[in-house]
Amino acid sequence: MNIKKAILFSLLVVAGTTAFAQSSNLRKAKAGLQKFQELQGNNLPAEQLAQLGKKDLEDAKEAIDAAITHDKTKDNPETWTIYALVNANLATLEKSAEAEQAAEEGIQKATALDSDGKHKENITVAGQLLGQFNFGQGADAFNNQDYETAYTTFNRALHYLPGDTTLLYYSGLAAIQNQDYPNAIKRYEELIPQKEFSQHKAVMIDLPKLYLSTKDTTNALEYAAKAAAEYPEDNDASVQNIELNLMTGNEGKIISDIENQIAKDTDNKALYYYLGIAYSASENNDKAIEAYKKAVEIDPNYVEANKNASATIINSVRNQLNALNDDKTLSNNDYSTKVEELKEQIKVALPYLEKVVELDPKDVDALKSLKGYYDFQQNEEKSAETQAKIEALQQ
């Protein structure tokens, strides 16, 4: 959205227009508008521009208001073009809905009268100004948490600035905040082809969630797959695609898809990590651990893979311990023997836990997991040492 360039272009077109029969009011209006635009070209702060330029615009408005009723100029497309430009600038300067309405009337009249397209560029500039005005009004409403008004106003701005990515995005955000998910989806879908847009990734990742909010699982799955394909290195996009497929009973498909990708790219640590997530979600812990271990083999400093490997191992042991505790048929000796077996089994998690803490010594959750490990192993010294680190971080 670059309205400043449009305004300066407007100045060039207005200043360069020639006419053989101009009334004094039309000339006065053009002169006042040109003075105001020259001030704008100086990049003055908004307050200073309003103070210095308002008189020029008011003079221009007084003159053009007379010109639109004068017999010699009332049917002149240039008259209505200047009328639209003057009022569009006033709307922006004064945040005036009345001036906005007048500018819209001027655009419609000028467009109808401009049969040869001579004033098309300046008419377009007037519309761009109204787009900017409505964007500002919509932003104010959004900041005041009046999301319904914000959505309506952003849409009005889009009438003048069709396809503007910033407007489409904020229109979608306003609809989301208003829980108007169908309109949010509509706006976000319009942004999909705009891959250069700075928030394109966020749009792609959020779109499946919006479809889920409307209980449209089919489209949620489709766009989750598109997001993962468009941003294959993004954790959120890939995990979302995995989780949605698992939620809808597509475990075999998503695991197969990841494994097919691994066959093509055997050294891609992220693929093994995602495979681990898929297996974890489908409660195949052994396969999940195997996948996480492979990711760590490729990159020993892969924090997420180390964290998930240790967590999956610990959770597996915890589930077995809970089952032991619930089994009232075990003798004390059998129970103790099996607990000792679990203590050996859980030792596999320790190197991964230690690596997570090494890579991020301030990770309190990892430290708590490490303390839980030492508590289970009845290593009081290590448990106390780890607890001291936790307390130091929480002070």
UniProtKB/TrEMBL annotation:
Q: Which InterPro entries match?
A: CellSynth/LPSAsmb/PSIAsmb (IPR051012), TPR-like_helical_dom_sf (IPR011990), TPR_rpt (IPR019734)
Give residue ranges of the TPR repeats.
269-302
Name the UniProt key words of this record, in alphabetical order: Repeat, Signal, TPR repeat
What residue range is the signal peptide?
Answer: 1-21
Q: Which residues cross the membrane?
A: none
A Pfam family hit? TPR_1
Q: Which PANTHER family match?
A: LIPOPOLYSACCHARIDE ASSEMBLY PROTEIN B, TPR REPEAT-CONTAINING PROTEIN PA4667
- This protein is called Uncharacterized protein
Q: What is the species of this protein?
A: Sphingobacterium gobiense
